[in-house]
Amino acid sequence: MTLNRIDENTIALEEVDPFCADLLEQIVPNADPGDDPAARNRIYSSPTHGADPEADDEWKEYVEPELRILFRDALEVVRSDLENLSPPEPALVRHLHLPLDHLEAWIHALNQARLVLSTRFQFGEHEMERLVPTGANDRSLALLRVHLYGALQEYFLQQLD
Description:
The protein is built from 7 helices and 3 strands. A 3-stranded antiparallel beta sheet has the order 1-2-3. The relative contact order is 0.17. A hairpin with a 2-residue loop joins strand 1 and strand 2. The protein is mainly alpha-helical.
């Protein structure tokens, strides 16, 4: 997969092979904390982590609902954009053009997916520092997603600067 700035308003993900297309299509499901309390707490963590119950209650009442809306809306932008991922037939590689004004939503969605995956698989600092996951299992694939999503975040942030 290659990333290119086509013009001042468009980013292109080109030469997206089937494996990378699958990883991209998993952003939205990976970002869903579902009923996992640890993942939900990671995404919607309070600022004081229980040290100041009053501040935590205010956070839950005033900030958390806005975060939920922000994350929901970001995921909807990504879901909608991914519907434009060119079909794999007849070519094996696919392409996706993203409007520059969608990048902030993508950054939020990618971050949320990384947080959920990191929490679900309990990745430690040592694992997060490894450039290439080892093994061929769900945990290694999740770590690969975390790294890919982080690389996309970094690229998108650079494009917004």
